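Hi F.,

I've been meaning to write this up properly since the lab meeting, where we talked about keeping a consistent format for the predictions we share between groups. The idea is simple: the sequence comes first, exactly as it goes in, then the C-alpha cells exactly as they come out, then a line or two of notes. No screenshots and no reformatting. I'm using this chain as the first example so we have something concrete to point to.
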Amino acid sequence: MQPYSTAVYIASGTGLHRLSGLYLAHGHGTKTMKSSNPAIQAKLAELRAHYHQTLPRQLRELRALWDTATAGRGNADALRDFVRHCHSLAGSGTTFGFPAITRIAQNMETLLRPQLDVEPLPMEDLGGKLATFLDELEEAAREKPLTESSAPEPLPPPRPPDKQLIYVTSENERLRDELKSRLKQYRYDLQAMTTMDALVDAVNDTPSSVVIVDIDMPGLERIVALHDSVRISGARLPTIVVSEENSLEQRLRAVRTAAADIFFAMPVDTTQLVDAIDSLGEYQDVEPYRVLIIDDDQPLAQFIAITLEQAGMRTHVVQDLEQVLNAIESFSPEILLTDVYMPDYTGVELAAIIRQHAGYIGFPIVFVSTETNIEKQLSAMSHGADDFISKPIVTDHLIATVANRVERFRRLNSLMVRDGLTGLLNQTATRECLETEINRAQRSELPFCYAMLDIDHFKSVNDKYGHATGDFILKTLARTLSHRLRRLDCIGRYGGEEFAVVMPNTLIEDGLSVLNFICKEFAETEHEFNGQKLKCSFSAGLAQFPEFETVASIHDAADRALYAAKHKGRNCVCTERPCFSK
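Output, unedited:
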C-alpha cells in the first residue's frame, strides 16, 4: 500500500543527512508543517531547481550506461553502475518533486538487480522493458515538478497485501488436506501438488514464497538442485519439511536431502507454522547493514568500505577517537571493524571504551589486522572483540564475517524487543519508539499519530473458547496490523489484549481512515481455530502530535479516546475530537 506520507532526509547516495534541521516529505497525501525560516526555504527551492536542471543529464548518462552494459560481454561494471544510478534516482525523484521518476526507477532496479551476476544478459526478456522504462523516465522528467503548494492526492485506503504463494507437495491426501485446512483462513495462495515434477515445473515457472514438502516424497533429493537453480537468479527457495515421525534421523534427512530451513512433525501447530511461513516468505526491503570502519591506513579503509558497499552494505570511515564516538551516535552502526594497532590508541582500548556503554554490550566488534600470532589474536579478542580478520583481506571472508555478525546482532536485538506471542514490539520497545518519534517530530515539525487498540470482550473469548483461542485471536490481530500498516509504522503489543501503533508523518484524518478500514475488516472476518468459528472486534483511540507534545500526554490522550470508543459501543475508532464511527 502507498505510504500515508514519509519523512526523509536529503539523501546522498544511500546515506541520510540532515539539512539545516528540516525534513522533506514525500508520498501520497503528504502534508507538512512548513519551516518559517526563509533561508531554509530558499535553499530547498535552490536544491529543487538544481535537480530539475541536472535531471536530463542524469538520464542521458543512464541511457549511455545501458548502451555500454548491453554492447556485449564483459560489461558487468556498467550494469552495476546502471543499477546504482537507478537506485539513486529512486531515492531522489520524489524528494525533489518527481514521484514518477521514483516509481519508474524502482521498477528498473527491481527488474535488473537479480541479473547483476548473469552473463550475458537475457536481452530478449529485458531489452524491450528497459527501453520502455527509459522512454518513460524522459517523459516524466519533462513534467512540471510537484511543489509544496501542489495539492496532494487524497490518501487511498489500504489495499490487501499480495498473497503469499505457497506450494504444498505430498502424495498423502490427508496431509495435504490438513495443511490446506489449517492455512486457508490466513489468505495464503496455497497450491497443492502430488509429484516432484509438478513442484519443479511450478517453481521454475513462478517461484513461491515458501515450499512445504512431505519428507516421504519420492525424489525429495531434487529439492537441493531446485535450490541451486533458483539461487542463480538471486532468489532463494525457503523450504519447510513435514514428517509423520519426529526423530533426529528424520531431521538430519530433511537437512541433507531437502536443505530444509524448518522441520515440523505432524500434527503441525498452526500458530508455529504460520509464524514460520511469515518469517521465511514475507517480502521485505531489508535495511542495508551499517558498518563503521576505523583504520589509520586510509586507502585500506576505503578498500574495505568499497568492498562492503558493493555487497549492499552502508559504510562510514573514521580515524580519530572523537569521530568514532560521534559516529556511533549519529550513524548507529551495527558492527565495528577496527585495526588492532593504530598510532594514538589501540583497537583493544577502543573496544574497552565502547563496552563501557551499557547499550553497546552486545555490539559486534571485529579486529582487522596483520597480526597473525594466534595467542595475540586471542588476547586481543579477550578484551571485548568478537572476531578477528587477518590482512591481507580475503573479500569473501570479510563480507561473510560482517554479514553473519550483523545478522546475529539483529536477531538478538529482535528477541530483546519483540513480544514472544505476537512477534510485535514489546511494551518497552513501543514506548521507546514513541519517544523517538516525539523527538524526531519536534525537530522536523512534522505530525504523527499514536493509537491505542483493545480487543472487545476479550475475557469472554478466553472464558468461552479457552486461552489457546484467545492467543490465536491476539496473533491474528497482530498479523492484520502488520499486513495493513506501513513498514515505517511501529506496532506493539502494549499488554494483555492491548496494542499500540505509532504512525510517523501522518495527520489524524489519515490515521483515522486507515484504522477505520482495519477495524471494519477485522470485525467482518470469521476466525476458525480448532474447529471453532467466532468473530471479534476491536476498539481504538487516536491522538496526534503536536496537539499532544509529550510521551505521557499523547499516550493518555489516545487512552482516553480508546475509553470513549468503548463507551460508544465498541468496534469503532475515536479521537480526542468527537467520535467517528465506521
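Notes:
Confidence is low (pLDDT under 50) at residues 1-37, 148-161, 578-582.
The longest helix spans residues 38-69.

If this format works for you, I'll send the rest the same way.

G.
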